[in-house]
Specification:
Elements lengths: L2 H12 L5 H13 L1 H39 L10 H37 L8 E3 L2 E2 L12 H9 L9 E9 L3 E4 L1 H4 L5 E4 L5 E10 L4 E6 L13 E2 L9 E9 L1 E11 L9 E5 L10 E4 L3 E10 L5 E6 L1 H10 L21 H8 L3 E6 L1
Parallel strand pairs: 8-13
Antiparallel strand pairs: 1-13, 2-3, 3-4, 3-15, 4-7, 5-6, 5-15, 6-7, 9-10, 9-12, 10-11, 11-14, 12-13, 13-14
Helix pairs in contact: 1-3, 2-3, 3-4, 4-5
Length: 366
């Protein structure tokens, strides 16, 4: 289906323009296709931001009319504002408009990226694919025809890092040490991690283990506040087949929960490095933690099988310990303490997620 036709269908669904049969059929499709569901969520957000932007334009226009009337009546004289005072006045007057324009640009980029990921042809001869997320920053002129906004934007220069890959990661030490997949940040010179509140921190690579597809990152950012003990433990031994599991990760720009079960103790074609999961996983889940019902990390989600739905693979958690042992050979990293016990054991799933989600991050590399 062409992307434009799909967007038209999604928009009709969001606006409630479908008849009952069409809506039922589309909702069934949405439940069975995670990419369609993601597109609906992102396009809904985009339309909401567009509506808000239109409302702000009307509001700003009303303020300009009032300003003009007051000026004509001689009640104010904005021409007397000079120098620094005038700059402050202009910034205060137009900062909301500039912020809204930036939001529209960001949402448009997210939507375009989702379309690129959804309709990009897949390589047929690959039986498994990584779950890292491609991120494309597309320069696009926004249809905001306002001289004041354009003038203000021309005076503000910002440098954006063109991040190309993204995924998930999680803390293994409250001092700022994280684990993710090696394939997410390979060759990256700039890395940022973002928590579920939207706070962004710079990170560096402590060490990469390509043979295990594990990367250890360290947050190096003055704004990061170290945390004490982590709520989850990292399991050293394998878990049982059919044990319920759940994941937290970033297949989109907010944390997403998924649940399933351990379907095999080995990975693709009997790979002993990984284990097989019966769970729905999407691009962006790569590098995210896999938890058992006790809130223990049993793996790092890394890839999925192309030919089957609901089949994913995770690096077994015991290899986190061997990676840390290797890293500690460098005296710089000897203070790392990996949590072995889970403090959320016995809690219901909702409470476990509330305790854990603050320690799972989105990871982006250039």
């Amino acid at each position: 289906m062409e992307d434009t036709k799909l967007l038209d269908i999604v928009e009709r669904y969001i606006k409630g323009e479908m008849n009952p049969d069409e809506r039922l059929h589309f909702e069934t499709l949405r439940k069975s296709n995670a990419e369609i569901d993601q597109l609906v969520v992102e396009h809904t957000l985009f339309l909401q931001q567009m509506n808000r932007f239109g409302e702000w334009k009307k509001f700003r226009s009303s303020l300009n009319d009032v300003h003009t009337q007051l000026t004509e009546q001689g009640k104010i004289d904005s021409t007397r504002l000079k120098g620094k005072a005038k700059v402050i006045y202009l910034v205060k007057r137009y900062k909301r408009v500039a912020a809204i324009a930036a939001v529209i640009a960001g949402v448009t980029t997210i939507t375009i990226s989702a379309l690129v990921n959804t309709f990009n042809p897949k390589v047929d001869n690959a039986q498994i694919t990584s779950l890292s997320r491609d991120i494309q920053y597309i320069k696009q002129k926004q249809n905001v025809q306002t001289n004041e906004v354009n003038q203000l934007k021309n005076k503000i220069t910002t440098t954006q890092i063109p991040f190309k890959a993204g995924g998930s990661g999680f803390l293994i030490d409250g001092k700022g040490y994280l684990v993710t997949n090696a394939h997410i940040i390979r060759n990256s010179k700039n890395i940022v991690v973002i928590n579920n509140k939207g706070d962004q921190f710079k990170a560096i690579i402590a060490k990469i283990f390509f043979d295990k597809d594990i990367a250890i990152l360290k947050i190096e950012d003055d704004t990061y506040k170290q945390t004490g003990s982590l709520p989850y433990g990292i399991r050293k031994s394998s878990t049982d087949v059919a044990e319920p599991i759940f994941t937290l990760g970033y297949p989109r720009n907010e944390i997403v929960y998924s649940e399933g079960y351990l379907s095999a103790k080995t990975g693709f074609n009997g790979d002993t490095l990984s284990c097989q999961l019966g769970i729905a996983a999407n691009r962006g889940n790569s590098g995210g933690p896999v938890f058992n019902h006790d809130g223990e990390i049993i793996g790092i989600i890394s890839s999925k099988e192309m030919a089957a739905e609901g089949v994913a693979f995770a690096i077994q958690s015991k290899y986190i310990y061997s990676a840390i042992d290797d890293l500690k050979k460098d005296t710089t990293f000897q203070s790392i303490k990996v949590p072995a016990k889970s403090s959320v054991r016995g809690m219901d799933k909702k409470q476990q997620v509330k305790k854990i989600q603050d320690f799972v991050f989105m990871v982006k590399g250039d």
